[in-house]
Structures are given as C-alpha cells and as structure tokens.
Structure to design on (399 residues):
C-alpha cells in the first residue's frame, strides 16, 4: 500500500517539476514539440530509476558505515555523470534505433537537477530500496506527464498574440503556473508524509 | 596586472543587468522558484551561490591553461561540488534551522547552471581578477531576481517581510503565493518587467 502511495504521490501531488521545481531548465527548453517532450521524459525516467538503484546501495553500504555522508553530494554527482555515459554507450551499442531517438537527450541529462534532486530526496526521507526505486520511477513519469502537457499547451500558443517581453520564457512560466494549479487539484487525495 | 575601471564596470553590469542570469538567459530557474517562499531563504541561497560562483570562477581561471579540454566539465563539476559541500557544512553547523528547511536545495547548487555557465563561458578564457568581477556581477543579478520574487511572495503569502508584519491584522493571506503556482507567476512577472525595461531603453538608444 505504501508503495502505491509513494508512486502516485510522486506523479500527481508531489510532482517533481511542478511542486519541487526540479528539472525546470529542460522543462522549458525541450517542450516545443510533444514528441521531443516525450523522448526527454522517457530518458529522464530511465536514468532517474537507474541512478537511484545504484546510489542507494552506495549510500547505505559504502558511505554510512564509514560515517562519510558529507561526501554524498560529490559521490552522487560523479555516479550520475558516469552512469549517463555508460547508459549512452550501452544503448548505442545494442539498441541503435532507440539511441537515434534518445541519444541527444541522454547527454543533456547529466546537468539535469531533477536527477540529483530525486537522489537527495530519497536520502533525506530515508526510503528503503524498493521505495526509492518506486519513488524515482514515479518522479520520472511525473516529469514526463508535466512536460507533455506543457508541450501540448505551447503548441496551441504558437499563433496567439503575446506581449513582446513575455514571449518565450515568460509565457511558459505562466502556463506552468496554470498547470501546477491543475495538479494542486489532486492535493488531499493522497499525501506523501 | 592593470585593470581599467571601464572594463570592470562593463563586465559587472553585463552580469547584473544586460545578461541577467534569470530574466534574460534563463539560467538558474530551479532555485529561483524553489527557495523564494521566504526572504531569508532567498538571501541564504544568494549568499551560497555568490560564494560558490566567486571561488569556482577564480579557481577555474587560475588553472584554465592546465585543464585538458576533454575533461573540463568533470573538473568544473568537482571544483563546484567541493565548494558546495563547504557551504552545506557551514550552514549545517551554524544555521541548522535554515539548512533543514532548505533541504536538498543547498546541495542542488552543484547543478545550478549560472555557476557552470560562468566557469565555461568566462572563467575558462579570462584572468582570475576579471573572472571574479564577472562572477560577482552574475551572482548579484541572480540575487536580485531571488529577492524580488521572495519579497512579493512572502508579502502576500503571510503579510510579512523577514517575519515582520506589513499589513493590518485583518489581512487575509493569499495561500496561492505560498504554493507553486505563485512562484511561477511571480517569476513570470519579474521576467516581464526586466525585459520590458530593457526593450524601452534599447529603443531610446536606437
């Protein structure tokens, strides 16, 4: 039961981009088209789950016994950077079609703060192994849903008359505000605390 | 090394206003939205970014000729990560309350693109002194945005600034400002204002 709560809460009520503001840069930059948003969403979900699956044991069996949790940040960022490289190589070698679709996004993900953010949240909240994997997958799916909704809304705006200084980033933020109001409607349905 | 005043001024203003990290280039948005619920969080975050940005720019600039171009990203990341850990430890030791409330966002300074961008675009090509001025300018521009957003949000969300009451007790707090839609909207308004002023001044100069 708790796993379902974590899963749906991280998608809807505690959405990673609309409640915690993580991964805003790609959320605004990669959502010009729905297909791009979906591709990036898949890549984010994949890397996020992989990262948490690897970082959890490192934190619990390597850092915690030696009381070296202050190294968390530096270890996490290194693991993420290495992991993205490895995933890129593996996909390029064995699934060239998938790579052609996802490759560009993968290398962009290292600097995505959502990945590091999810890893830090999972550490702060003391999740167990399965819980952290469910949480990270849910967060990735939440990011993808928000990005696709954003891309859909932006496609409708292409021909509308927007004030010059609000064009681009400004109007995207306004859409994000309205989207996050929509997601707030789920509040109270489930709660992650 | 001699440094004339005009260049220094131009570099500084470039960061504060002309290429304001949040309003114009759109970097560092995550933290601008996440930590602006209270003015004191915004100030803590600005101080952290300024500290890390200043020292990382100087460090990158000092060793810029020795860095192998292929691994430069990894080197920048390591320098920034070490500085962020220093700041995180400092907060935990002296301001445990603020550190607890900011949660993971202090650690997320590592992935703040303002700092990364400065290291890559400016510090890797210029002398340490110029890089320091450039880092200061951009962090000031970043702090400006954070302070604007946090002042507006705290004022309407709880009627206070820095915890001091600003309105009469009859004031009804706007809950939406405390939550995420408020953050997005206020930041959009900030971007709108800055770009509008820049458009007007550009037209006057032309």
């Amino acid at each position: 039961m708790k796993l379902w709560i974590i899963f749906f809460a991280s998608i809807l009520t505690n959405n990673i981009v609309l409640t915690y503001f993580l991964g805003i840069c790609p959320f605004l930059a990669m959502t010009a088209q729905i297909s791009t948003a979906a591709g990036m969403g898949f890549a984010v979900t994949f890397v996020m789950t992989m990262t948490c699956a690897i970082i959890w044991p490192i934190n619990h069996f390597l850092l915690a016994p030696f009381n070296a949790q202050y190294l968390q940040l530096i270890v996490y960022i290194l693991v993420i950077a290495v992991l993205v490289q490895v995933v890129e190589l593996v996909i390029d070698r064995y699934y060239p079609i998938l790579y052609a679709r996802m490759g560009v996004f993968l290398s962009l993900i290292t600097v995505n703060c959502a990945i590091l953010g999810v890893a830090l949240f999972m550490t702060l909240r003391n999740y167990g192994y399965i819980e952290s994997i469910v949480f990270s997958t849910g967060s990735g799916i939440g990011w993808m849903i928000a990005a696709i909704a954003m891309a859909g809304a932006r496609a409708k705006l292409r021909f509308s008359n927007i004030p010059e200084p609000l064009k681009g980033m400004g109007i995207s933020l306004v859409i994000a505000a309205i989207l996050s109001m929509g997601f707030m409607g789920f509040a109270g349905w489930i709660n992650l605390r | 090394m001699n440094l004339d005043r005009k260049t220094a001024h131009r570099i500084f203003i470039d960061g504060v206003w002309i290429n304001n990290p949040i309003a114009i280039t759109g970097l560092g948005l995550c933290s601008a939205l996440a930590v602006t619920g209270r003015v004191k969080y915004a100030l803590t975050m600005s101080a952290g970014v300024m500290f890390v940005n200043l020292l990382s720019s100087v460090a990158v600039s000092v060793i810029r000729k020795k860095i192998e171009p292929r691994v430069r990203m990894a080197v920048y990341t390591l320098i920034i990560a070490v500085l962020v850990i220093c700041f995180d430890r400092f907060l935990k030791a002296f301001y445990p309350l603020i550190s607890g409330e900011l949660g993971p966002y202090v650690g997320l300074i590592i992935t703040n693109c303002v700092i990364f961008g400065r290291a890559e675009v400016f510090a890797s090509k210029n002398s340490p002194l110029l890089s320091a001025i450039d880092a200061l300018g951009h962090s000031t521009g970043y702090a400006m945005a954070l302070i604007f957003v946090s002042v507006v949000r705290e004022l309407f969300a709880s009627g206070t600034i820095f915890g001091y009451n600003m309105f009469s007790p009859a004031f009804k707090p706007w809950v939406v400002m405390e939550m995420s839609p408020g953050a997005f909207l206020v930041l959009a308004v900030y971007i709108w204002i800055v770009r509008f002023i820049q458009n007007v001044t550009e037209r006057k100069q032309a």
About this structure: Chain A has one domain: 25-182. Residues 34-63 of chain A form the longest helix (30 residues).
